[in-house]
Amino acid sequence: MHSAQRFHIGVLAESLRVSCYLHNFIQWALRQPNIRLTVVILRPSGSGQNAGATSQGTTELLQCSPTPGPSHAVDRWLCTQLDGLERRLLRRRPHLLGHLERYDLAGTEVQTVCLAGTGARLAAPSPTPGDLERLASLGLDLLLELGGASAPRGCLSVARLGVVRLLYSDDSVQRGGPSGFWEVYRRHDSTGFTFLHLAEAHAEGRVLLRGSVPTQLHYLSNQAELLRWAYRQLALLMQRTAQSGSLPLGEPRMPYCHRTDTFPTWLEALWYVARLQGLRGRKTLDRLLGRVKRRSVAVLRSHWRGAVLSDAVTIPNPPGRFLADPFVVERGGRTCCFVEDFDYRRGRGSIAAYEIGPGAITPMGLVVQEPFHLSFPFVFEYEGELYMCPETGEARDIRLYRCVDFPGKWVYEKTLMREVSAADTMLFARDGRWWMFTNVDPLSDGTHSAELCVFWAAHPLSDVWTPHPLNPIICDATRARNAGLLFDGQRLFRVSQRWDFDFYGKQAQINEVLTLDEQRYEEQTAGLLQASFGRSAVGMHHMHGVDSITVFDYVTHSSRRG
């Protein structure tokens, strides 16, 4: 594509009234100097007249399958009650309130094309020749089908690159609607979305990207989070495509082996409500009784490759606190483990140190304290100095501390990045560069588990960190969040967290980094860490190690007073 020519995107819409997600995407595209956007209206007769936002639903709300006979009234009543419950629950999430709004494009600066004379016929299997000619005359580079409007059959050749379809599910494990409902109903650990590329050469579609977010506790919030993150990935995909003039190659679709879902029956809707109320009741009871999921840190005197987790020695949690996120370092003949020390009373963590001696593990006290939360004390050496990069997301930065008296005295050294919500940052040297792996929350809503970003610099004290061109290199809530770093000779392994439904820290996963350079990133799963070693453990979410010591944390159900 010529550098002076803007990449022309067509977006299918059923009418001039569009969801907040599509509206925000259109506004983003209008600000891009290398993108031209046209909205193709499929049902012009259904458009509104006035610009602005209304309270119409952007997506179909939960509906029950129509059943003939007396149960039809039950269906309607139950769905009405469930709809009201979901809306009330959604109002408790202020950043999701726009989910049920529509915006009218009439009178705005966006270019729109109504396929005159077609109306609803364009959604039918066989559009008229005039429909296709009108689409072809737009000179589109790419046509987007974003879930609300289906591309008519025969339109794969009207745009130079064909059609990109956004599916509001991971189509390898879940197909059918309503979007976001069945993942909550079945209590999946994550809810996915899929980008498909449809073209004449592969009309069945090639998968450009699959992503996922942690499954929320109820349907509408889950649907809203799914769409927020899917449209963020859409903008990133369109930005890269506009720059390169081409789409990624993608992968062929595989056969789908599961049931294709429809709207739930009234019995399924009733069961959903019962389970939701049961979950809320259990959480209320846990709060009243002071029950929490409490983490503990354990130490093994062996290399991580040969670790037998049941042989580990647990560091006792101090009263009213818990320990987590351990990192171990050997220096000057001493071995110390640095941990998050979370104080329930303060509601924040600090960094503590424990010395691992020949016959005992000795507490060294708190070594880094701030008025904001600290955790994940990643420790590394550079030019003979020892540095720590703890999580300081509450301060909206990524900062370093330097050790001036091992292990107990540390001073603030510098801030590597400012005005960024990031968690669980790790820095290491490889192939002549220093690399930063971090979990950035681009939507600033506290979600640090959906994306992994990579940056590089000449040295770890650099003021300039170059983002990887594939950022986020992982968009998958089941493996994006960092949980430790392991080495085996020159082989590098990134430990990641695995969620379960309503359970942060259920499992950890070991991933071997196969390729890491300025243009590529590739990793593959090498092993799974599960809490099957006894001690009433119900979860595990972190591991780190040096040559002779391995440390990890695990989760138990306990009283806050314990």
CATH homologous superfamily descriptor of the largest domain: Formyl transferase, N-terminal domain
Task: Report low-confidence residues grouped into runs of 5 or more.
Answer: 45-68, 117-125
Kindly report the spatial arrangement of strands forming the biggest sheet: 6-3-1-7-8-10-11-12
- What is the annotated CATH architecture of the largest domain? 3-Layer(aba) Sandwich
Q: Label the structural class.
A: alpha+beta
Beta content? 35-45%
Number of structural units classed as domains: 2
> How widely separated are the two ends?
65 Å
Shape: globular
CATH topology of the largest domain: Rossmann fold
Count of helix runs: 6
| The CATH class of the largest domain | Alpha Beta
Major β-sheet, in short?
A: 8 strands, mixed
Specify the helix fraction band. Answer: 10-25%
Beta strand count: 34
Specify Rg, calculated over alpha carbons.
26 Å
